C-alpha cells in the first residue's frame, strides 16, 4: 500500500474499512469456498484485517521464531495479545500438546468469533476473548487501553506474543500493557513484541515515514493516531524494558527502515525480552 492509498484508507471510518476489504475479496473468497480450495483453518481473505503477505506462511514463520528465540515448548502456556484471525494460533495447534494452552484476545469481534467457531471447536485448549477497547484504527469507541487489566491471573504464562500491536498504540497504552505483560508472565517467561524503532540516526524511508514528532514517539498520521506509531529505541529499553523488570534477549531490525528484506526476519523490528527472576 503506497502512501496515498494508505492515507485514503485511514480516512475511512473503521467499520467501513472492513466492509471495503470484504467486498474487494468477495469474488475470490466465494470461488475458493465453492471449489474447496480453502480449508476450515484458513479464514476468508476478506476477513483478515492484520498484516499482509501469505497468511499461513507468515504464521508458520512466527511459530518458528517462538521456538528458536523464545524457547517455546509443547507444554507452555501462551498468551496472544491481538489474536486477530488466528494467524499465530493456527500453527500452534500442531505444536502445543494437551498440557499446553493458548489464550488470545482482540478488539475486533469478527476475528474472535471466527477463531472461536473454527479453532476452539477443534482445539478446546485454544480460547479467544473479545475485549472492546478503543482504537481509532480498528474500532470506534470502547474502553481505554490505558486502564485495561488483562483478564488472566498473575504468573499464568510462559510466553506472551504482542505481534504488530504496539505499532498501533500510543505510549500510555503501551506502558500499561508492559505492566500487565510483566504481571501475567511467569518468572523467566518471555515476551515477543514488534515495534517501529528509531534513534537519532534513523532515516525514515520515503512513503513510510513518521512526520509527526512527539519526542520519544512519532506518528504516521495525526488524525488516526493508532495507524502506525514509532518509538524511540532508548525509551523502549530504559522506560519499558528496564523499569518493568525485563532483560532484552534479542533485537532484530526490520526491513521497514530500508534494510534489504532478505537480511531481515520481518518487516517490523522484533524485540524479545525476558522477565527477570526475583
Please tell me about this protein's structure.
It is built from 7 helices and 11 strands. It has a single domain, classed as Vaccinia Virus protein VP39 (Rossmann fold), CATH 3.40.50.150. The mean pLDDT is about 90. The termini are far apart. α4 (about 90) links the parallel β1 (about 75-80) and β2 (about 100-105). The chain has helices spanning about 5-10, 15-35, 55-70, 90, 110-120, 170-185, 235-240; strands spanning about 75-80, 100-105, 125-130, 155-160, 185-195, 195-200, 210-215, 215-220, 230, 245-250, 270-275. It is globular, with a radius of gyration of 18 Å. The protein has about 280 residues and is an alpha/beta fold. Helices cover about 30% and strands about 20% of the residues.
Using the alpha-carbon principal axes, give the shape. globular
Overall pLDDT metric: 88
Strand residue content: 15-25%
**Total tally of structural domains:** 1
| Strand tally | 11
Order of helices and strands: HHHEHEHEEHEEEEEHEE
Discrete helix count: 7
Reported CATH architecture: 3-Layer(aba) Sandwich
The structural class is alpha/beta
CATH superfamily: Vaccinia Virus protein VP39
Helix share bin: 25-40%
